[in-house]
Amino acid sequence: MLTLKTGFYLFMVGGIFLSSGFSSEEKDFESSTRTAVIVVDLQADFTLGGPLPVPNSGKDYIEGVDSATRKFKGQGFRIFATQDWHPKGHISFYTSHKGKNVLDEVPIQDKESPVSDASQQQFERLQTLWPPHCVQGTEGADILLPTQGLEKLIEVVVQKGMHADYDSYSGFQDDGGNETPLNEMLKQIGVEKVVIYGIATDYCVKATVIDALKRNYKTSLITSLSRGVKPESTQEAIQDMKKAGAALYETVEDFLADAG
Ligand SMILES: [Zn+2]
Question: What is the pLDDT of residue 118?
C-alpha cells in the first residue's frame, strides 16, 4: 500500500497523454486523468459490525462502492482514498473525556489559535464525541477496497486524524488547520475535478466536499455510494454541499453520462 502522511508523499505524473494528436477516445481518457475519485473513509469500523456503523453499510453497499470505483478506474480516473487513522486516546473518542457520552459535544480550548489575530472565542471549538474507532494499526481501520496486490484499486491512501488533539473530518485538513498532502498531490498530477463518495455523508464526506470546493476543484458527490449517520443531518448535508457548489449525481452512470 502506498501510504501517505503529512510531509511525505510520492506520486507519478501521467504525462503520456500530454502530446498532441489525440484521437477522441484518448481525449476522453486524458480528461478523466484530470479527474480524481476520492473514496472517503470506507473503513471497517464505520460499516456493519464495527463500533460506529452507519446505517445500510453491509456487504451490498461495500460491493457497490467496489464495482463503481472499478468502473471509474477502468475509464482512467485517478483513485484516491482517505483513511481515518487515530492514535489511541484521540480527542474525538468519548473515552478520552471523563463522564462524557457518545455524541456529546465538548468545548475544546486550543492553546494557540491557527489565526494570529484571532479573538479569544476563536480559540474554542466544539468536538463531537464518538466511540473509539479507526485506531492506527487495528483491523477496524482497514480500508475495505484493495490497496495493494493484483486487485489493487486505490492508487493513493491519504491518512488523516493522526494528531491526538485535532479531529479531521476533511480529507484536506484537520481542525487545527494542518493540511494533509491531498491538495498538493492533486495539483501535482494536474487534477481539476473531483468525484467524492463514501462515509459519512453528514460528516467526513461533507467536510471533504466543502474543502474541495474551497480549493477550487469542480466537485461532484455520488449520493447512492454515500452513507450518513442520521437521515435528517444527511439530507441537510446534501443541501449544504449543493448550495456550496457541488454537483449531485445519484449513480456513477449518471455522472459518466453527464461528465463524459
Ligand atoms: Zn475519526
Answer: 52
- Residues 6+ positions from 147 with CB-CB distance below 8 Å: 1, 2, 81, 153, 154, 157
Q: Which of 41, 167, 175, 202 is catalytic?
A: 41
State the distance from the centre of ligand 1 to the C-alpha of 96, rounded, in angstroms.
13
Query: For the segment 188-224, what is each residue's pLDDT rounded down to a tens digit?
Result: 999 999 999 999 999 999 999 999 999 999 999 999 9
160 is catalytic: yes
Beta-carbon neighbour count of residue 227 at 10 Å? 24
Structural domains of the chain sorted by starting position, each given as residue range(s) with its CATH number in brackets: 3-12+25-86+134-259 (3.40.50.850)
DSSP state of 53: P
- 39 CA → ligand 1 middle, Å: 15
How far is the centre of ligand 1, averaged over its atoms, from the C-alpha of 158 (Å)? 14
Contact 219, 40 (CB under 8 A): no
The residue assigned the cell 481525449 is 27
